[in-house]
Amino acid sequence: MPPAPVYYEPRGQLGPRIALAVPVGAALGVAYAVASCLVTQVFEAPPLFVLVTPLFGGALAAASRWVADRAQVRSRRGRLALAVVTSAIALYASWQAYLVLSDLPGLDFTPTWAMSPAKLGHGLAELASRNGRWSWVWWLAEVAIVESMIVYLMRAVDIEVPFCERCHAWAQVVVTFELADRETRTAEARLLAGDAAALATMTPRPSGAADWAVVRVYRCECGRSRHASLDRAQREAGASAGVRTYHAIGRRPSLYFDLGSSATTALTPIVTNLEIDERTEQALAAARDELARRRRADTDGEPGPTARIG
């Protein structure tokens, strides 16, 4: 019987650079406040928030991932928690900066760049009393949109990458190749059985396929950390660009141009960070080379000698 599979287990440790979340979150918050002032006071086009707010959430997710890499946050849960904390800092900074930059007349206090939560809350209450109670609804929706974007992107894009505790470095992808979707379960069984060489006989991903399997091999700088992962990939079509109608409560409908979205690839983990040895890594590298050779032969109209039907 093959030995029981062993998987990478991230430790709950953090590096000193976790403090980068504060200046990064604050900087993005101020940038969002500037964009908010432009939307509400210069262009006077609230529908633009439909584009600006999700972009803010996406920027926070990317920035949080950047901080997590440098702070050596090992686990996905830890990185998600860091992203939520960074977004809270950014939202606080954005509301504070908005009150300062918008220079709203009639406030019973002077906004500053270092307001306490109580003073900031008082300023938002005054702003809501002037603009209407629906301001609170929008602000809550704004928070929900930002946090939803962060959770979605961190779950969809943030892949669990092994971290080597010996050389204190993230493992890098050294081998990667793609298989036909129907080979996913067979590839899983062969990997868990320790028969990595069998993947060389499988069908590579057909050109233009919307569903396929991805094999990746990670190795750290010192070579102690070696892991293999298998994911099922599915391409999801994006939304087309076009003119949309924005319906606001109590206002006339207005038109805006939606830039649309590009196609995305969703990954479903099948085997995550299976510990392997150097021989298995070499077998997977040989499988990558063999599949690439057969794919080139198929493209040139010359079936490879090990190609199989079905």
Write structural notes for this entry.
The structure is a single chain. The chain is of the alpha+beta class and 310 residues long. It has two domains: 16-157, no CATH class; 163-299, no CATH class. The protein has seven helices and eight strands. The protein has helices spanning 21-42, 49-70, 76-102, 117-131, 134-157, 184-192, 278-299; strands at residues 163-164, 169-170, 172-180, 211-219, 226-236, 242-246, 254-258, 264-275. A four-stranded antiparallel β-sheet has the order 3-4-5-8. Helix 2 (49-70) crosses helix 3 (76-102). The longest helix has 27 residues, at 76-102.
Short description:
This protein is an alpha+beta fold. The chain has helices at residues 21-42, 49-70, 76-102, 117-131, 134-157, 184-192, 278-299; strands at residues 163-164, 169-170, 172-180, 211-219, 226-236, 242-246, 254-258, 264-275.
